[in-house]
Amino acid sequence: MIKKPLLEIRSLTTHFLTEDGVVRAVEDVSFDIFPGEIVSLVGESGCGKSVTGLSILKLIPSPPGQIVNGEVFFEGRNLLALEEREMERVRGNEISMIFQEPMTSLNPVFTIGNQIMEAIELHQKIDKKEARQRAIEMLDRVRIPSPEVRIDSYPHQLSGGMRQRAMIAMALSCQPRLLIADEPTTALDVTIQAQVLRLLKEIQREMGMAVILITHDLGVVAEIADRVAVMYAGRIVESGPIESIFGQMRHPYTRGLLESIPQLEEKKKRLNAIPGQVPNPTDLPAGCKFHPRCSLRIDECQKGEPPLFQVQGNHYSRCLRWKECC
Amino acid sequence: MILLIFLVAGSASFIAPHDPGKTNVSFKLKSPSFQHLLGTDQLGRDVFSRMLHGSRISLSVGFVAVAISIFIGILVGAMAGYYGRWVDSILMRFVDIMLCFPTFFLILTVVALLGPSIFNIMLVIGITSWMGTSRFVRAEFLSLRERDFVQAAKALGMGDRRIIFRHILPNGLAPVFVTATLDVATAILVEAGLSFLGFGVQPPAPSWGNILTEGRTYIFDAWWLTLFPGFAILITVLSFNLLGEGLRDALDPRLRGRR
Amino acid sequence: MARYLVRRLLYTLITLVGISIISWVIITQAPGSPIAITLDPKVSPKIVEQMEKNYDLDKPIYQQYFLWLKRLFTGNLYSFKDGRPVLDKIGERIWNTLLLNFVSILIIFSLAIPLGIFSARKQYTFFDNLGTFGAYLGISIPSFWLAYLLILGTVKLFGYPVLGMRSFVTEEFSSLEIVMDRLWHLMLPSIILAIGGIAALSRYTRSSMLEVIRQDYVRTAKAKGLPEETVYYKHALRNALLPIVTLFGFLIPGLIGGSIIMETVFSWPGIGRLAYQAVLARDYPVVMTINTISAVLVLIGNFTADMLYAIVDPRIRYQ
């Protein structure tokens, strides 16, 4: 049986027009998301993964940002062609998003209940009392203790982990088909991180929604993702099912990312950081964007952007030497 | 624009077509003509020449007053920010108290007490307008004193005064320039206000404020006496405000690159 | 909240004491006063006597201060000029000034905030640039000059007097006409008094708004699917207005300074004009009392602003 993708991203290209020049934050990114799966976008900060997430919901601050090319089909509709009014009905209702900083992502002057109910009342035609009931249910579902009390708390009265749970409750309150989670655990303590991730995975399974998980942490990816897309300098450099990627990675950047994770069981003397710096986004190198930092580079790497090579099935790599790699 | 104003003020004696103090009663209250570009006042003095000379006085009041206020402001702010603790609390409380006084009224009172000489005016405007600067300087110092280069200087056993003036101050001066520029604008306005109430620079010495004030008696007969000096004040103050704002944008890295 | 309140109250009290000390120092210890006046042959012996009574110049310094304080608050400070109690003289005029300032504050807030919001929404458009330029004009223009131009303009246009609090012939007027007449006389001075504040506050609102719409929670609100208007006027505005509440306190010193000039220009019988007349007559008890009262008014303004801030900001309210 061939499943139809929930979300199809085709040649998405987002630029920022700044004084220093054009920042090509996302360049020709394409991938699909099927119902009920967790796809992870991985990369260092500034690689364009967050901008990709924001572009899907058309939340790029404009100016200076601009989606210059591409299509994003959600259940067959091209979101990028929708009117703002129609887009508002998609946001928070069919596609939700949660953000990295639970400290600053909730409005400090409204109670969390108020902020959750706002989304419910907006998208579902129910009255205040029912909305409040739904909000309490949602808070309970994200394991916030005594939700009927907590609903009247202001964000500053909650801990970071609790706030992120409240954010999740808000995002999921209208039972979206797709959740975009932008570094949902990065700002949290390590122990809380694991709890929140587990919670996300659980709810995702219960509700059967798809998740785009944006993260720089391959450990998080390994724990919950079904598929991975590795981004570098605004491009997808490698993508594929998680077993395939972790089993036999086919891009030197992915290997670099993996080797830079500290691992307890390995008795390595030092971490292998990727040499060099993330390139200046207004002044990207020619050819393969990773070649200046790459140990496998050959002269051809500078000549032109390598295409995505099919490794096997839906595992792709944007490396000329993918066969030799890794 | 500011350059032009300075140029005019600096060369007032050369370009003024008439002696600003020379009276000629038979030529009093003449409207603008080629002979008297901006007309004459009630004593037949040439308004254009008086305004050129007045620019000097108005500008010097602005600058000297601000120099005084910057000096006090830096001193207080530096001490509060560098020493912190009780020195900071006491000084900042003092700043709060000073901020409660309606500055203009305080200036008026003190100038009235001391007598309205140009020097007193500069002094009083200076000593009643340093609070903003001291707050800025304090904030800069609070953040700078924890930096490595200050800690290093301390470790080397340098004296406090040397650290404050040689190491921290130069790094914290940028916002002071911005406030100074804006304060010049305010000081010129304050002098004009004082002149209006009869406590500014005293006639016959011309300042824009007192030309304007003398003119208002004749507002229905000789509009030029009121219009031009007021306009000169407006343009000058506006220029300084715009310059200050421009400096702020240029110096604030957060604003840079967003426009 | 209670702790915050107590702390603010304590600060306010300390500041109050500081204000009184500084006022007293200026009046009694500044060079040129009051000793210089005693040396002035034009000053009548009656005034010298009054002055000695007012300041107890024969007593030790700290006693002088406390006696002055006591006199100030028990209404035993007398004017040099006519020997009347200072508090009486001020009492009969202060309401006029408060009325003028109150109307000005009303004008400032009701105009500046919408202007600032609109400028922020239309950032870098023609309207915004016009607003910026207008704001610079507003803070740069000498108020008395503008006042004269406007008086000249209105009198020429409408042929109706604008000076004073009311026209001379009010007996013949109906009550409606009296109200209109009062409003007419109130209009020009309060508008001109408000101009600086409008300029400053509208710019402040604008930058506060621009700051807030870059915040993460505004993005969250958009991600929820809220229409732009709701995001703007509910989520962003509430936060942008928080710091503006505190500005309320900072507006007052400028308004009082401005009152002196405006009341003088418009012959408005308030304490600003009284202060000016007192300064001219070297009537220091009156001058200093008004100075002190204004500082106290500012302090009350600041305290009110702090309280308002605590009420509107839940982060302070629940602490």
Question: Describe it for me?
Answer:
The complex is a heterotrimer of chains A (326), B (259) and C (319). By secondary structure, chain A is an alpha/beta fold. Chain A has a domain of 69 residues. Chain A contains 10 helices and 12 strands. In chain A, helix 4 packs across helix 6. Chain A is globular. The longest helix of chain B is centred in the N-terminal third of the chain and has 37 residues. Chain B starts with a helix and ends in an 8-residue tail after the last helix. In chain B, helix 10 runs parallel beside helix 11 and helix 11 packs antiparallel against helix 12. By secondary structure, chain C is mainly α. The N and C termini of chain C lie close together (6 Å). The model of chain C has no long low-confidence stretch (mean pLDDT 79). Chains in contact: A-C, B-C. Chains B and C meet through helix 4, helix 5, helix 10, helix 11 and helix 12 of B and helix 1, helix 6, helix 7, helix 10 and helix 11 of C.
Give Rg of chain A in angstroms.
20 Å
User: Could you report the average pLDDT of chain B, rounded to the nearest whole number?
Assistant: 76
Q: What count of structural domains of chain B?
A: 1
Number of helices of chain B: 12
The CATH architecture name of chain B reads Orthogonal Bundle
Count of helical segments of chain A? 10
* Fourth CATH level, the homologous superfamily of chain B: MetI-like
Overall helicity of chain B: over 70%
Largest sheet descriptor of chain B: none
CATH topology of chain B: MetI-like fold
Order of helices and strands of chain B: HHHHHHHHHHHH
The main β sheet of chain A shows up as:
8 strands, mixed
Termini separation of chain B? 23 Å
- Percent in strands of chain A: 15-25%
Task: Specify the structural class of chain B.
Answer: mainly alpha
What's the SSE pattern of chain A?
EEEHEEHEHHHHEHEHEEHHEE
The gyration radius over C-alpha positions of chain B equals: 22 Å
What is the molecular shape of chain A?
Answer: globular
Largest interface: B-C, 45 and 50 residues
